Task: inverse folding
């Protein structure tokens, strides 16, 4: 029986991570946080001091990069060359760097194949920004989550340390602009994606809506 793929795209703070995890758990499928992979590349760019605008230098880094997603006690972990970097990729600095690094064609090409290999083996919920438009244009079900800027900033602020709500809001607005205007795989909803505004919805309400849409 062919595997099934659900894609959930959307901007930062739209709730796609929490919803994707909850949905995958309800379905008994695997959850794939593709954003973590890009953050992993950004982390290694920073750690090694690589100039990601230098195509040769970036290519050399990607050639030696070894990123793996692993589940530990129900929690998805990102492993880079044997080292767990999960907790180190969730800083505002890495988030902004990931937005810039992910616009590079070399980076997207390297991670594209990795994501598609995962999809050949498991029923999965893939979360990201271009899952339904670029990575899995023929996914069984596609969703795009959104929410107003202030709501998204409040959600991220509750998870962040050391940043004011105003700073978080500015960072998200900047990332929205970067992700939406980049030439390579910009953030946008697939033409056949179901749009869900999560501003006034709970996680369970969004999950229930998705389950209804896919006939579960």
Result:
């Amino acid at each position: 029986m062919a595997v099934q793929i659900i894609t959930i795209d959307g901007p930062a703070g739209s709730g796609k991570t929490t919803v994707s995890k909850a949905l995958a758990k309800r379905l008994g499928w695997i959850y794939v946080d593709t954003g973590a992979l890009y953050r992993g590349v950004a982390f290694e760019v920073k750690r090694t001091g690589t100039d990601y605008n230098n195509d040769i230098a970036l290519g050399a880094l990607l050639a030696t990069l070894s990123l793996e997603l692993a589940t530990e006690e129900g929690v998805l972990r990102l492993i880079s060359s044997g080292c767990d970097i999960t907790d180190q990729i969730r800083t505002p600095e890495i988030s902004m760097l990931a937005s810039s690094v992910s616009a590079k064609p070399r980076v997207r090409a390297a991670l594209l194949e990795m994501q598609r290999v995962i999809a050949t083996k498991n029923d999965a919920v893939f979360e990201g920004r271009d899952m339904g438009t670029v990575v899995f244009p023929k996914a069984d079900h596609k969703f795009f989550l959104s929410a107003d800027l202030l709501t998204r900033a409040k959600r991220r602020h509750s998870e962040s340390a050391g940043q004011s709500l105003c700073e978080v809001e500015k960072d998200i607005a900047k990332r929205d602009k970067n992700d939406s205007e980049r030439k390579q795989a910009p953030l946008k909803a697939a033409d056949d994606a179901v749009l869900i505004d999560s501003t006034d919805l709970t996680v369970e309400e969004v999950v229930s809506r998705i389950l209804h849409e896919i006939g579960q």
